[in-house]
Amino acid sequence: MFKRPHILVFLAPAVIVYTLVMILPLFGTLQLSLFRGEAFAGLDNFRTLFGDPRWSASFWNALGNNLWFFVVHMIVQNPIGIALAALLSSNRLRGAAFYRTAIFVPTVLSFVIVGFVWKLILSPIWGIAPGMLDAVGLKSLFQPWLGKEAYALTTLALISVWQFVGIPMMLIYAAMISIPEEVIEAAEMDGVTGWSQFWKVKLPLILPAIGIISILTFVGNFNAFDLIYVSQGALAGPNSATDILGTFMFRTFFGFQLQLGDPNMGATIASVMFAIILVGVSLYLFLVHRRLRRYQF
Amino acid sequence: MKVRRLTACLLAASALTAPAFAEDVTLSIESWRNDDLPIWQEKIIPAFEAAHPGIKLTFNPSAPAEYNAVLNSKLDGGSAGDLITCRPFDASLQLFQKGQLADLSELKGMANFSDVAKSGWSTDDGKQTFCVPMASVIHGFIYNKQAFEELGLTPPKTVDEFFAVLDKVKESGKYIPMAMGTSDQWEAATMGYQNIGPNYWHGEDGRKALIAGKAKLTDPEFVAPLEQLAKWKPYLGDGFEAQTYPDSQNLFTLGRAAIYPAGSWEIGPFTPQIGGAFEMGAFPPPVPKEGDKCYISDHTDIGIGLNAASKHAEQAKVFLDWVASPEFAELYANALPGFFPLSNGEVKLENPLAQDFIGWRKNCESTIRSSYQILSRGTPNLENDMWAVSAGVINGTITPADGAKKLQDGLDSWYKPAN
């Protein structure tokens, strides 16, 4: 490193920028969470957050909702992403490029547009969802999903899945087409074809990509805020049913309506979010990532 | 561009040649009402300057969402204008406590306002007032006159009549009885709970009893409005749980709903949207029993105060006295129908619907929203809780009694009445 100073020179821009815009504010947040106004308070804010029945109820509600949001992504988005990638990489599909683009388009849309458009689609008054269900005789199935405590969060998670399913699809598709022909041919010589080929040959080889996607999903979901804020507002109704850590932190830090902002408690929640993400990523790196075997020639 | 430069030259030339009045003072006004800029420039400022030579005014609004932050930094940096448009309650109270707003208790014009009108800009004990009240918004119900005539209905006076009217509209099947959704939650609290509530908790009496700790949100008079809200559910139309505030506005202005639980600020925007398709009428929140005294939410919204650091305090007080006068009240109320003057003087309004709303002040007692003064200072925030509880009660996910208990428990957790 020090024998070859040009390495430092090339690293410097990224390190400096990242330190200024990410690492310093992160430590600023951690510092803010240890103060009450101007006075040093130690871990008092954390005691309030976990010890006060009202604060902790809001916190666990937000964390639980966040976990559910993540679970829906893992069990819906990623399997669908893998299935789509498998279909796209099959040689018999025509127009693969069109499908690939069409499925990827929502990913590049602004979440404001996505939230607004889906709110309109699902609107019981102007929406096309009730009409479409009516056309196939299933009008009775229609519910104002975004306004029901039982369904609102799942609905939002599925909207998010619709928006982002293109990313796992693309990553896995890339992993699949990078599987060498020799491996596939060898499998076919041994009589492994179709489904069993997917399970026994392709899946083990795309596992690293699935691992990366899982961790990206985890970090993204625990930092999620925008879609909920756009479609349900900062109070994340109905009755906090869609409140996740991001909206909880936002309301606390910046205040809302008559509620005045509380930077210290807001920073406390942000620090806890950081800790959750850190633990999650560490577990993944130490327990999962090291065991993944990559195909090597 | 050329024209502008020419005007600038002409202006500069005229400034140099015209005999300058040595005593001319220019006062600048900070405000968040950027929508009202033309009204100030075309109506209010000329009227004042004509009557008070020697004082000039400039109106410098910023965007509503940024106003508090911009104003605080200007005040801290000493660059704020002489006159400050005041948000009600805690935001302005903080400025007064920091010594940035001057005490106006001695201003002559203050005599034109009732204690309720002044409460938005007074200390908790009501002894000092620091802004002149400018306007309030009144809650009630706007209805579609055409729909009422068609179905042979008259505006209801009591709660029973109110539900009878809703039943008739529902039976006809032609209109949604009431345009309101619970998706945004605040509609349910502001146009629901705070609209019908004062009739039950007797306006100021109930509100002050809450602040004094003599009444609780679990008392019958505070639970009763929640019980009435729970009965609104069948009249709100399909899928009201996912209906947003703009949805409700559109449903009513498109003529698809008969009644709209409202705030008077809708008068201005609704009139052009309806475009004469039908006439609007309004009735005050129905009273529980025939002959009961009626109360209306007449919520203080905008005031104007004096920057304590202003170099022209004398001239600014002249302007503030004028703002407190009936003349200003009439000007302002007619320029912005739906924002009502708070002064006790007689004010003639030209907009018939605005006349209806303000006419209720004659027979009904005014009060302000119960959660705004003092009670929303802590965490959990009472106002936010009211949103969730009012919406939940209408959705049927929480009972009125449990909702009231949640509100009171939240308040008890941080609020200790002074006595």
Automatic annotation (TrEMBL), chain A:
One of its GO terms (biological process) is transmembrane transport. It comes from the Bacteria. This is Multiple sugar transport system, permease protein. The keyword Chloroplast does not apply. Coiled coil: none annotated. GO terms for cellular component: plasma membrane. It is a multi-pass membrane protein. Its main location: membrane. Belongs to the binding-protein-dependent transport system permease family. The keyword Nuclease does not apply. It is found in: Cell membrane. The chain crosses the membrane at residues 7-27, 67-88, 97-118, 154-179, 205-229, 266-287. InterPro entries: ABC_transporter_permease, MetI-like, MetI-like_sf. Pfam families: BPD_transp_1 (PF00528). Keywords: Cell membrane, Membrane, Sugar transport, Transmembrane, Transmembrane helix, Transport. Residues 63-286 form the ABC transmembrane type-1 domain.
From TrEMBL, chain B:
One of its GO terms (cellular component) is periplasmic space. It comes from the Bacteria. This is Probable sugar-binding periplasmic protein. Its main location: periplasm. Keywords: Signal, Transport. One of its GO terms (biological process) is transmembrane transport. Belongs to the bacterial solute-binding protein 1 family. The keyword Signal applies. It comes from Paracoccus aminophilus JCM 7686. Residues 1-22 form the signal peptide. It is found in: Periplasm. PANTHER family: ARABINOSE-BINDING PROTEIN-RELATED (PTHR43649), BINDING PROTEIN COMPONENT OF ABC SUGAR TRANSPORTER-RELATED (PTHR43649:SF28). Part of a binding-protein-dependent transport system for a sugar. It holds the Pfam family SBP_bac_1.
